[in-house]
Amino acid sequence: MILNSNQIQKIIPHRYPFLFVDRIDELEVGKRAVGVKCVSADEPYFLGHFPKEHVMPGVLMIEALAQVGAVALLADKGNKEKTAYFAGIKTAKFRKKVIPGDVLTLEAELIKKRGTFGISKGIAKVGNDIVCECELMFTLS
Questions:
Q1: Domain CATH for 40
Q2: Cα-atom radius of gyration of the chain, to the nearest Å?
Q3: Domain tally for the chain?
Q4: Contact (Cβ atoms closer than 8 angstroms) between residue 96 and residue 121
Q5: Spacing of C-alpha 87 from chain mean position
Q6: Which residues contact 119 (CB under 8 A, 6 or more apart)?
């Protein structure tokens, strides 16, 4: 483990219940990061999202991937005190459902950065199965 949740919170502004990354296992500052989210049945969103069959909302997988990408970007000392904001979602595909007990591996790679704007590519996996893929646009402020 490279970063635990307390260390992640020193880099990005997210807090419970909107911090969707439990730890960062790999980090190449300014390039890529790999994080982990352990999905548990007591997540607050399960109370209202398919309460009879708990399924993690796809938008929250996208948010988790964005947070991992933000860690890779904001861990750079030149970006200290900045915040990464969503500027858009270029693509998003959901391949399989994610349920309590699953462990999401969240891979985010910064594929383009120009000034305060950039694009990251995200892949979420459960085991070897890809459950979500996306390209996200962000802006720094």
A1: 3.10.129.10
A2: 14
A3: 1
A4: no
A5: 15
A6: 90, 110, 111, 112, 113, 135, 136, 137, 138
Q: CA–CA separation, 35 vs 22, rounded Å?
A: 7
Active site residue 49: yes
Termini Cα distance of the chain? 29
- Other beta carbons within 10 angstroms of residue 36's beta carbon come to 16
Name residue 33's beta-bridge partners. 27, 108
Distance CA 84, CA 44 (A): 25
Select which of 49, 82, 97, 113 is catalytic.
49
What's the pTM value of the predicted model, to 2 decimals? Answer: 0.96
* CA-angle at 103, arms to 82 and 59, nearest 5°: 55
Closest CA to 35 of 83, 71, 60: 71
Token code pair at residue 32: 């890529």
pLDDT tens, position by position, 109-137? 999 999 999 999 999 999 999 999 999 99
Low-confidence ranges of the chain (pLDDT < 50): none
Domain of residue 52, residue span: 3-140
